[in-house]
């Protein structure tokens, strides 16, 4: 997967598409034209595509049609939906084995296990700060192994404790 790091402006992507993208300070290639649910959309070769899927296919490899059951899809590990940069820290393809150990967070965003070094609140996944949990996805009848940030978990249960306590005292 060493050819997985295309450069900004790569000529395999037509110039009129590059015109709609800028490189942000964080290294994202941000799509500035039309979006749907936050993801870039683009008409190309007669069909409408998600911009990040199109860039991935032009620069890296062909993709099968998106099928939630196969679970193989591109993930935005940078958490920036309009980003179209194929890169292990930006738009990254979950392979089958990644997929077995995939993390789903309640907002509906999926993350490849192992792809991220920090939780969505910026806490590092160190050995002490990481709990391995299993989540059941009833809809697709699958189990996912995911990493839970202990700092977030602790602050959530503290929040719950104080909320609960305040309610009890309020009665
Ligand atoms: Zn990005
Ligand atoms: Zn955290």
Task: Explain how this protein is built.
This protein has 171 residues and is α+β, with helices and mostly antiparallel strands. The chain folds into two domains: 1-93, no CATH class; 101-171, no CATH class. It has helices at 15-18, 51-59, 96-100, 150-170; strands at 21-23, 29-31, 35-36, 39-44, 47-50, 74-76, 91-93, 102-104, 110-112, 130-137, 142-149. The strands form five sheets. A three-stranded antiparallel beta sheet has the order 3-4-5. It has a two-stranded antiparallel sheet with strand order 1-2. The protein has a two-stranded antiparallel ribbon with strand order 6-7. Strand 10 and strand 11 form a beta hairpin. The longest helix has 21 residues, at 150-170. The chain starts with 14 loop residues before the first helix and ends with a helix. The structure holds zinc ion (ZN) (2 copies). One zinc ion is lined by residues 119, 121, 123, 149, 151-152.
**Strand order in the sheet with the most strands:** 3-4-5
Compounds present? zinc ion
- Shape type: elongated
Strand content: 25-35%
Order of helices and strands: HEEEEEHEEHEEEEH
